[in-house]
Design goal:
This protein is of the alpha/beta class. About 35% of the residues lie in helices and about 20% in strands.
Length: about 220
Amino acid sequence: MARTIAILGGTGPEGTGLANRFARAGEHVVIGSRDPQRAQAAATRLRAEVGASAVVDGADNASAASQCDVALLTIPFSGMAALLKELKTIWKPGTVVIDTTVPLAASVGGSPSKMLGVWQGSAAEAARELLPQSVGVAAAFHNLGAALLAGSAAVECDVLVCSDDENAKQVAIELARKIPGVRAVNGGKLENARIVESMTALLIGLNIRYKVHSAGIRFTGLAL
């Protein structure tokens, strides 16, 4: 059955990268943004890049959320609470929300690589608290940077998926496997997102020190 995937905050580098990969995999993607015209422009660019087979639309975040079966949060953590409060009555029961956000702050003049303390423990747990119970929540895709997601080349990186909702976890695992080269790893409970989110800060530091844009994570000894 056809499904619709909303990328909320999808005009940023991470959102655009995920939209690109899922469009190439044949999914119906709706890019969401505070500015619907910006979302529509991003959708037009992506259709031109992926080709005639791409089914990509653009809309404001609320419209994207209201029509989707799966939503990915790719907004900055600083804006997550406000957006989810705005969308609280929008969601269809059974929607799966996949949180990709990381609570990061930048040092003066530096890159965003310092973890912020989150009262709930992680951005994903904060999202779970703000979303209706009828919505499934998973945490995934934190460690796939925008540079890895651009284009169509295989990605040498594992994606850890954390959730207390088995259906949400399986949906996120399925989507991760649609990206060539990616292995989806069951990361256990949603509370483990605390560890996964912190890995992003580590990877940003590695990219800076080694002057690359594609540091990723692989786990050995797993039969996946």
